[in-house]
Recover the amino acids of this structure.
């Protein structure tokens, strides 16, 4: 299929299962979706969530939903149950529903033209996007959000357990997706290595920060941000002199229980600390039960998902515990929140131990608690780490520099694609 010609007519299909339109609005994180335009490189974007009915809990929606996110971006949200079939036939319903979504996207693209398909992970988004890219005969761009091999080794958890029931299937999908990727974006060497190990061509891998996905409120100077009082009250977080916070999905791959146990040690040692376990996930109920069993339920708040503006005013007053965190680690550092992180995935590349935070051995939540106590007990150390953390995050995000690198990488990808098309 011929792609639109000229930069002003580039159209991108962006496949992402992170947020639905409902969730991105609730979190006030529209900037996450505006970043899909790659700094203006793709003027028109169709954002596709293949299974939006699952996180939105819409058990009766049968048809894909198309909504306008902005004047230049559509949100196309699929469903896992397009047909009225018995519950025991859900696997068949799921496959047929996804096939119907691919066909409808292909028909829409045939009328309008599409330049490339971008996927936000090499798992189900990658599989869906790779099939779609082959139909449309356009390049496939893969973003790598995590080192999935390390996550599995540490927890035994799969990236998409509801879809890929075994590790063997997950690995086969990653091999299929990476081997067909025309461009791979990786923020750290560990995830770039994952892509190479599963068949990505070395010259197709670009090392780029994923800071472009940040909400702009996190870029403000910490001292210029509003008081956190209203946000704390809104989420039922008690007032305290000091806060420990862990932000992220409460799932096994993120190890939130380790942050909770570290909070227990700090709370036992100091009576001026409140813990905040921000996020939702499968472990939410068990974490609350564990907090009660540890005797700290009155000193740890579970506010659920905190919207981006509220999070941006709370973080400057916290010490951040990061067993394994994604974007929230950058957000915390931009807020000048001193960080204690596990030596896991990309974290040890981002946090410079003893300079912009502390890195402790993976799984050693006691060491995490000890470092947090050290920070809380030494105001001058905390100020030094906070300043260095923000500067490190600003250097990492480098919005303008990364935009230039991204555009150059995309130009090179399209040139490779054109050269391949010209071959006999």
């Amino acid at each position: 299929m011929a792609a639109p010609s000229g930069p002003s007519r580039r159209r991108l299909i962006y496949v992402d299962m992170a947020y639905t339109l409902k969730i991105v609005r609730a979190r006030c994180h529209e900037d996450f979706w505006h970043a899909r335009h790659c700094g203006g490189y793709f003027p028109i974007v169709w954002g596709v969530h293949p299974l939006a009915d699952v996180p939105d809990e819409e058990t009766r929606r049968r048809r894909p939903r198309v909504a306008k996110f902005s004047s230049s971006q559509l949100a196309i949200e699929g469903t896992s149950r397009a047909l009225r079939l018995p519950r025991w036939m859900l696997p068949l319903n799921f496959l047929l529903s996804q096939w119907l979504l691919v066909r409808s996207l292909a028909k829409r693209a045939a009328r309008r033209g599409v330049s490339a398909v971008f996927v936000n992970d090499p798992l189900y988004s990658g599989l869906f996007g790779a099939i779609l890219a082959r139909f449309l005969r356009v390049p496939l761009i893969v973003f790598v959000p995590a080192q999935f091999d390390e996550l599995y080794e540490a927890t035994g958890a799969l990236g998409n357990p509801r879809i890929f029931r075994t590790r063997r299937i997950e690995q086969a999908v990653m091999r299929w997706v990476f081997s067909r990727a025309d461009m791979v974006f990786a923020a750290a060497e560990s995830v770039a290595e994952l892509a190479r190990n599963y068949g990505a061509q070395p010259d197709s891998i670009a090392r780029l920060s994923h800071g472009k996905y940040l909400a702009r409120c996190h870029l403000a100077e910490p001292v210029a941000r509003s008081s956190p009082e209203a946000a704390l009250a809104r989420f039922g977080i008690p007032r305290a002199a000091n806060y420990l916070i862990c932000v992220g999905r409460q799932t096994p791959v993120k190890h939130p229980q380790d942050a909770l146990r570290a909070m227990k040690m700090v709370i036992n040692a100091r009576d001026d600390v409140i813990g905040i376990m921000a996020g939702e996930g499968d472990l939410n109920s068990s974490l609350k039960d564990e907090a009660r069993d540890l005797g700290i339920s009155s000193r740890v708040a579970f506010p659920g998902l905190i919207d981006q503006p509220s999070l941006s005013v709370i973080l400057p007053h916290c010490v951040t515990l990061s067993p394994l965190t994604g974007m929230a680690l950058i957000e915390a550092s931009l807020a000048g929140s001193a960080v204690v992180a596990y030596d896991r995935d990309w974290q040890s590349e981002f946090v410079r131990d003893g300079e912009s935070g502390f890195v402790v051995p993976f799984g050693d939540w006691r060491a995490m608690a000890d470092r947090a106590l050290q920070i809380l007990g030494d105001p001058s150390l905390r100020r030094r780490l906070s300043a260095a953390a923000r500067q490190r995050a600003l250097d990492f995000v480098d919005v303008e520099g990364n935009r230039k690198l991204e555009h150059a990488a995309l130009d090179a990808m399209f040139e490779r694609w054109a050269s391949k098309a010209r071959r006999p």
In short: Residues 7-209+398-422 form a domain with the Rossmann fold fold (CATH 3.40.50.2000). The two ends are 18 Å apart (CA to CA).
